[in-house]
Automatic annotation (TrEMBL):
Portion held of the full protein: 5 to 231 of 389
Cofactor(s) annotated in UniProt: a divalent metal cation
Organism: Microbacterium helvum
Keyword line: Isoprene biosynthesis, Lyase, Metal-binding, Multifunctional enzyme, Nucleotidyltransferase, Transferase
Protein name, per record: Bifunctional enzyme IspD/IspF
Record field: transmembrane: none
């Protein structure tokens, strides 16, 4: 396939407090990772690299087999690193063949609809070096220094970034090879390497499961959704 999707699922889940790696926590009868993979395999065909904590590689392979409907030929599982950036780098090294577009996706955004993947790929096909899904910022945002409000920030200039974040493979590989700092997302790393990244509409369901309240929200959404 010409699209590769790196699903990063190697986080520790400390903030979720479920006592184990977040991606393997159940939302309903299926784990966060399984739900994320259901979205990935409902998107246009792609090579899929799943990045997991050391020791969970076999579990991830099992989840991937089920989610992919036995397309294990499309799936690679690798061990992640200490930071998200290291985990993405490990995933990129595992891509093979003729992949031209790489999407990096947080497993923690488990309910991301397939259409978001298509939008990101579409923007790159239309000529962008990189494209990310964003949502408008709802809160009023302040710049602060300790307890002092330094400035109001014009909300209309802001957006919150989601995943999957997509890039031309050559651009992303080069940006990772050149990266000399830690960035909080791939778009920042690619922008630091001098490339323009464009925005496509994100989706409320692409929220990141971080806290116990987020997990509750995902549970309620799935319980309310028709099978
Ligand atoms: O911690 P946070 O939820 O922001 O992480 C975002 C995504 O990055 C998660 O899907 C998590 O599993 C992944 N991650 C990773 N390796 C790390 C840290 C986070 O794959 N060392």
């Amino acid at each position: 396939p010409r699209v590769g999707i790196v699903v990063v699922a190697a986080g520790s889940g400390t903030r979720l407090g479920a006592g184990g790696p977040k991606a393997f926590v159940g939302i309903d009868r299926h784990s966060i990772l399984r739900h994320a993979l259901d979205g990935v395999f409902a998107a246009p065909e792609a090579q899929v690299v799943i990045v997991v904590p050391e020791g969970r590689e076999g579990d991830a392979r099992t989840e991937a087999l089920e989610a992919s409907g036995d397309r294990s030929d499309l799936v690679t599982v690798v061990t992640g690193g200490a930071t998200r950036q290291e985990s993405v780098a490990a995933g990129l090294r595992a891509l093979w063949g003729d992949v031209e577009i790489v999407l990096v996706h947080d497993a923690a955004r488990a309910l991301t609809p397939p259409e978001v993947f298509s939008r990101v790929v579409g923007a790159i096909d239309a000529g962008a070096d990189g494209a990310i899904p964003v949502l408008p910022v709802i809160d009023t945002i302040k710049r602060v220094a300790g307890e002092e409000i330094v400035a109001a920030v014009d909300r209309s200039e802001l957006a919150s970034a989601q995943t999957p974040q997509g890039f031309r493979r050559d651009v992303l590989d080069a940006a990772y090879a050149a990266a000399s700092a830690e960035f909080t997302d791939d778009a920042a790393l690619v922008a630091d390497a001098g490339h323009a990244v464009s925005a496509v509409p994100g989706h409320p369901l692409a929220f990141k499961i971080t806290t116990a309240a987020d997990l509750d929200r995902a549970r309620h959404l799935l319980a309310a959704a028709p099978e």
